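Support reply, case 0932

Customer input (verbatim):
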Amino acid sequence: MSWLVIITLIVVGLIFLLLEILVVPGATVVGIVGAAMMGFAVFSAYNDHGSIAGTYTLGGTLIFTIASLALALKSNTWKRAMLGSELTGKVNTIEETSVNPGDEGMSITRLNPMGKALIEGEYYEVTSKDNLINENTEIIVTKVDGNKIIVKSKTE
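Our regenerated output:
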């Protein structure tokens, strides 16, 4: 096998490995194929060109792989590719006096078993105690446990 084919296998295998580590999640076929290509190239160098050339190929492949990984992980390329905005959503922040057991409200979405409800003029994420509750159904707060509001239908 010629050196051009061996070098091509190593470079393509390294690209597959970088894709596996940086882009494709999990241990997939891409990483396995990349490692196999690099291994076959080193094996071919040993087999076709002798042990000295094979050892130089193995060493060069290891150094090239480590340097490429270090450069790919260190570069600002990934900062440019990442989403730069921050999430501004938050869970219910309930003051102790704002929602109390016995308060009444209206389900805004279907509670299946979670959904949105309007209680005392404020929107909250609530959980239905037992059954599914359709939207625009009157509800009663049965329990407030930290940030979790548990409700039931008023008609029950």
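We compared this against your earlier run and they match. Two observations from our side: The two ends are 79 Å apart (CA to CA). The mean pLDDT is 85. Please reopen the case if you see a mismatch on your end.
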